[in-house]
Amino acid sequence: GYGERCGNADLCAVIPNLKLKLGVDCVSDEDLRKLRDVSYFVSEVANMPPDDHRPFVGRSAFAHKGGVHVSAVLRHPRTYEHIEPERVGNERRFVVSELSGGSNIVAKAREIGLELDKASPVVREVLREVKELESQGYQFEGAEGSFELLLRRRAGQYRKLFDILHMRVIVEKRGEEVVAEATLKLKVGEKVEHTVAEGDGPVHALDNALRKALERHFPELSDIRLTDFKVRVVDSPSGTAAKVRVLLESRDKDGTAWTTIGVSTNIIEASWQALCEGIEYGLLRRREWK
């Protein structure tokens, strides 16, 4: 669908409509199951982030949120889905928010390989924590990496990889150039790492310093890259003292993406929260959650 003006016909929508809705045998069933992978490959070639809201192949095409909604999907998927997601290489996704009920938590846990009962203390505790955090400005429907970390912590499926002992960021103007410098002191196991790194901005400097400290312990960190960074004001009437919500998207070398969140009145602190969780999620996913 990319094009220099209004775009071109999106074959990732045209093909499944022809095949599944109109009965035109334009591709084989096997090739149709590769559609999402093809879509992601084209996005990579175009150097554009994949559109989560694209029909058939987007991450949100088969996403479900409300508690009653999710409960119905678990019983009879066709009540809310026009096709089976797997037919186009996609997958069903359950989103967690303040509207969630126990069904959402159970379904999300099942997605990541955890079997929980709707009446279990873990589900109740996760629901309570989600509602409390969302009242502070967090939104987990767009930060599934952070939610999975939260869920695994409560379910006893989490191991902390590093502890931050000290963090400092300095932004300095040198003539016409503005340089950010981050100093980090952290602990990995029994080893203390003390690093300094510069960057084009505070978040870039923190990312560089964190990687510098961790890569000798976790070489696979070089395969994880930050691909998107978004900042939203949570309570705009407060002006410059307002809380900000930072959403940070990371991606592994296999194309898997995850988003983490940070919220604070200090934009550097919010960014730091999201950055640490993003790296931690990527490392735990590769080392312990396979």
What can you tell me about this protein's structure?
- With 290 residues, this protein is of the alpha+beta class.
- Among the domains are: 11-79, no CATH class; 163-287, Alpha-isopropylmalate synthase LeuA, regulatory domain (Double Stranded RNA Binding Domain).
- Helix content is 36%, strand content 21%.
- It has helices at residues 11-21, 29-32, 35-45, 67-75, 102-111, 121-135, 144-154, 202-214, 267-287, and strands spanning 63-64, 93-94, 163-174, 177-188, 191-199, 225-233, 244-251, 257-264.
- The strands form 3 sheets. The protein has a 3-stranded antiparallel beta sheet with strand order 3-4-5, covered by helices on one side. A 3-stranded antiparallel beta sheet has the order 6-7-8. Strands 1-2 form a two-stranded parallel ribbon.
- A hairpin with a 2-residue loop joins strand 4 and strand 5.
Describe, in short, the structure shown.
The protein is α+β, with helices and mostly antiparallel strands. The protein contains nine helices and eight strands.
Reading the helices and strands in chain order gives: HHHEHEHHHEEEHEEEH
Total helical elements: 9
Q: How many strands, which pairing sense, and closed or not: the largest β-sheet? A: 3 strands, antiparallel
Uncertain ranges: none
State Rg: 21 Å
Beta fraction of the residues?
Answer: 15-25%
Instruction: Tell how many strands the DSSP assignment holds.
Output: 8
CATH class of the domain at 163-287: Alpha Beta
